[in-house]
Amino acid sequence: MSAPRVDRAAILSLVPHQGAMCLWDEVVEWSADAIRLRARNHRDPTHPLRRGDRLHALHLCEYGAQAMAVHGGLLARERGGAAAPGMLVALRGVELHATRIDDLPGVLECEARALVQGETGQQYAFRISHAGILLAEGRAAVVLAS
């Protein structure tokens, strides 16, 4: 991976998730089949996925799915177009190695790799970590609107 960094403003132009629901702050690097991103919003008391005083690790699945959306948007932009909207239809092999994430002091980092990319859907494997410690991993499948 070596494509240039992508900031939050560019991410917002690539995905349907807007405002605080856009979970990623920057793309560190990306290629045709993988992406690495960072987020700092997990400590925000107004995080849209937060319930009560906690942001549960289960929500890292949404971070993983949005990593797919950002990658799809970057690939579509590179081809001169826009990504088709998608719907998350399956999570597989998800393992959570934490209970909550709102108490973690540093950035979240995600690595996502395309397993299947087609006109009608995508499947990616994702791994999300904090300070080098794996928090969540799994696979996500999305059906794309035609």
List its salient traits.
146 residues, alpha+beta, Thiol Ester Dehydrase, Chain A
What does this structure look like?
By secondary structure, the protein is an alpha+beta fold. It has a single domain, classed as Hotdog Thioesterase (Thiol Ester Dehydrase, Chain A). The protein has two helices and six strands; from the N terminus they run αββαββββ. The protein has helices at residues 8-14, 60-78, and strands spanning 26-30, 34-39, 86-96, 108-117, 121-130, 133-144. The chain has a six-stranded antiparallel beta sheet, covered by helices on one side. A hairpin with a 3-residue loop joins strand 4 and strand 5.
Bin the helical content.
10-25%
Q: Number of helical runs?
A: 2
SSE order in H/E notation?
HEEHEEEE
Contiguous runs where pLDDT drops below 50 for at least 5 residues? none
Q: Strand arrangement, largest sheet?
A: 1-2-4-5-6-3
Main sheet makeup: 6 strands, antiparallel
Strand tally is: 6
What is the end-to-end distance? 29 Å
CATH homologous superfamily caption: Hotdog Thioesterase
**Inertia-based shape:** globular
- Supply the helix-strand structural class: alpha+beta
List the domain count as a whole number: 1
Q: Provide mean pLDDT, rounded.
A: 94
Radius of gyration: 14 Å
What is the beta-strand fraction? 35-45%
- Top CATH class: Alpha Beta
CATH topology: Thiol Ester Dehydrase, Chain A
The CATH architecture classification is Roll
